Amino acid sequence: MEKMVQPGDLVGAVGFGTQIRKSPYFDATVRWGARGFSVYNHMYIPRDFGDPVQNFWNLVNDAILCDVAVERQVEITGPDAARFVQLLTPRNLSALAVGQCKYILITSAEGGIINDPVLLRLGANHFWISLADSDVLLWAKGVAVNAGMDVTIVEPDVSPLQLQGPKSGEIMKAVFGEAIESLRYYWLTEVDLDGIPLIVSRTGWSSELGYEIYLRDGTRGDDLWEHLMSVGGPLGLVPGHTSSIRRIEGGMLSYHADMDIDTNPFELGLDRLVDLEMEADFIGKAALRDIKRQGARRSQVGLEIEGPPLTAPNTVQWPVEKNGEQIGHVTSAIHSPRLERNIALALVAANHSAVGSSADVVTPDGTLPARIVPKPFYDPKKRLAATAV
Questions:
Q1: For the chain, N or C: smaller number of CB within 10 Å?
Q2: Which is it for the CA torsion 87, 92, 98, 99, positive or negative?
Q3: Residue 221 sits in which domain range?
Q4: How far is CA 131 from the centre of its chain?
Q5: CA distance from start to end of the chain
Q6: What pTM did the predictor assign?
Q7: How many CA atoms lie within 13 A of 114 on its CB side?
Q8: Sequence-distant (≥ 6) Cβ neighbours of residue 124 within 8 angstroms
Q9: Other CB atoms within 10 Å distance of the CB of residue 348
Q10: Structural domains counted in the chain
Q11: What is the pLDDT of residues 127-178, one digit of tens each?
């Protein structure tokens, strides 16, 4: 078991303030070894439980518990809730069943990506948008002002945890019983755990088998964390943080890193999330139709970068060059200890995006040769994440 750290041990190392929210699990994560935090959706998120490479191996070999309460929920209810949610996204939701989840895009009038959340349908007129890092609550409220629809939009008292890794299924059965085994990939169920109200989904931001556990009472955060660790610890569960190594291996996108409001779905190869033929209207439909007709000017690619192992993820976008001219930029880069090479996601000019093409990446340690390769870099069929328990 990891050394238990007391909150006072962090004084002077992390500057906390009242203007940034703490999750219901904040104190528990500090006790269990969180050494560093960043801010996401106006809330602190643990980013450091020690060696990030060990955190990666814990995730891919066993299981980790991550505080992701920063994935704030936008709750949409009311008679027009389904119609309003469809207005926000170009993904066709006509077949979305109650109890089902979908990865969606929220687009601007110009076709740019405002957020790439997971949508959960809890009832016929009850939805949660589980957010990446942007203010969709304010966007949705603004859209509703002139939408002429009967909807109520709030941020509910909901705070998710992620339990991810190959042992997560067995741990979940130990916590919730055998019935959890029937929960399908990208579906959800409502659970009461000894009086703690939860929604559990077969989702997660890890590219591994995993679950998200949505706490519906913020006063019970400590109880939930300690219960999960008490049951899961003997089965291999350790506290951790979302792994940049694993998510880049899996080609998973990070908002503000790999895309933003100036990036459109076609540049990212996310055509499957855009239905321009559906009867329903959505924000950005005309713009996305024009972009598709003209063709995207940029394309997201995978890169293998030569040179010594990168010691940390990039903190700025690195230029990608061809024959001395910039053709794009690296958005996310890391060294994969499993693949034993440096891997990266990059946005480059569409005419320079062919697999097998060479390029150069300008890093703080010098210019390094690179090659465009297929992505994702590992488990391209997502068999690990979708495997039944």
A1: N
A2: negative
A3: 7-72+157-247
A4: 8
A5: 25
A6: 0.94
A7: 19
A8: 82, 98
A9: 23
A10: 3
A11: 999 999 999 999 999 999 999 999 999 999 999 999 999 999 999 999 999 9
